[in-house]
Amino acid sequence: MNKTTMLALMLGLGAAQAGGAEGARQEGFLEVNGARIHYVSQGQGTPMLLLHGYPLSGELFARNRDALAAAGYRVITVDHRGYGQSTAPASDPGSLTTYANDALAVMDRLGVQRAIVGGMSMGGPIAFEMYRAAPGRFLGLVLINTIANPASIVEQHLWRGMAQKASTFGPQSLVGELLKDMLTGQTRLNRPADAAFLTAIVRQATVAADVAGANALATRPDYVPFLKTITVPTLIVGSVEDTVYPPEFSRKMGQNIAGSKVVLIPGAAHAAIFEKADAANRAILDWARANTLR
């Protein structure tokens, strides 16, 4: 039994998730830019590429694939190099630019010319770098619990502390630091399987990936001026109880991207796409249909 199947069983997804009940499902590895990238492609129709945050994997979107695929989308998720089942060369464990180039290369290898690109948390800056490099590859943009501002002094130290802790004690040591922000207290108490699922994902990352991702977040550029260059339909999904990137940041991005739509999900923390998957799926599908992105 591989790690993806184990994670699916933990969620109770069973054969529907593992076997692709909602349309054709492909799963495998692609050699791109010196890394071995794990991907899942589910469904048929308009491509939708979803990029996970730190230090997670494409399985963050395990509760989104079926619903989005059933609505007529080809949902593609990747594990960034060093996360989930993906591996990276020691010479390039990861950066925002590298993650973006990997994602574009996966699109090329899967025959996807244009896609709706969604990025959660660290996936947001990765999507910005993809758009900077190849705006013509975007049908639309979904920004999920993410931020365009550079890291503040406090946040820089937080990420560098994460890198140091992972280096000293291993990836599993980050679970306690992250889970309190990923899920609300109510969810952690009443839905322990959710916490166990995210815990398993965090533990899959390599130390090198944890360090590279933390450094990428600590040193990310200021994307706020860049937002005004985005011309594709854009949805911004935030959550009311997000303590990592509070809803004020979602609203600020909305003010700087012309024609964008902001949706704030109540009762969810930083991992709203997982914790309140039904609400997130509705928000994405309502926006996509309104913009005829299908």
Automatic annotation (TrEMBL):
Gene Ontology MF annotations: hydrolase activity
Domain AB hydrolase-1 residue range list: 47-277
Keywords: Hydrolase, Signal
Signal peptide as annotated in the record: 1-18
Domain of life of the source: Bacteria
Cited Pfam families: Abhydrolase_1
Coiled-coil boundaries: none
UniProt protein name: Alpha/beta hydrolase
The species this protein was found in: Deinococcus rhizophilus
